């Protein structure tokens, strides 16, 4: 039975700055993800605050939003069977120190805040996050 899903991926400023966009896209493609849409943008801090609103009570919220709006990012719609969980697995743990070998955060992440990629954490949030960046 087919269970094709879409999820939102972001290549964060630390990775775009290090010119890792194409390398990371190739990893997704080599793992069977289709990049349905993608664009390189820079967002305002207010937009980052909206995007990460779920974290507004966390101590890292302000720095996180400053960071996400600090430079260009690449936002992508990825599609694959079970894309949401598959992308989370391929990204690895939030803290690159805890991420397993073969994951993007293990390979490229600098620190818990500069961890190179974002990925939706549920099917519902994937729909919300795709709508946030790609309004048809
Ligand atoms: N983050 C941080 N400090 C923390 C936890 C998270 O700077 O102690 C940042 C990190 O960039 C992370 C983002 O906040 O990717 C969102 O946190 P979440 O727990 O949702 O992690 P993710 O879903 O990205 O793995
Ligand atoms: Mg998250």
Primary descriptors:
Alpha-Beta Plaits, binds magnesium ion, 4-stranded antiparallel sheet, 4 strands, globular, 136 residues, alpha+beta, 7 helices, binds uridine-5'-diphosphate
Cofactors, ions, other ligands: uridine-5'-diphosphate, magnesium ion
Q: Report the end-to-end length measured between terminal Cα atoms.
A: 29 Å
Which structural class best describes the helix and strand composition? alpha+beta
Q: Quickly count the helices.
A: 7
What is the overall pLDDT average?
A: 98
Going across the major beta sheet, what is the strand order? 2-3-1-4
What would CATH call the architecture? 2-Layer Sandwich
How many discrete domains? 1
What is the C-alpha radius of gyration, as a whole number of Å? Answer: 14 Å
Query: How much of the polypeptide forms β-strand, as a percent range?
Result: 15-25%
Please report the first level of CATH classification, the CATH class: Alpha Beta
The secondary-structure element order is: EHHEHHEHHEH
| CATH level-four homologous superfamily name | Nucleoside diphosphate kinase-like domain
- The helix content is 40-55%
Low-pLDDT stretches are none
- The shape, in one word, is globular
CATH fold call: Alpha-Beta Plaits
Number of strands: 4
* Main sheet attributes: strand count, strand direction, barrel closure: 4 strands, antiparallel
Quick take:
It is built from 7 helices and 4 strands; from the N terminus they run E-H-H-E-H-H-E-H-H-E-H. By secondary structure, it is of the alpha+beta class. The longest helix is centred in the last third of the chain and has 11 residues, at 123-133.
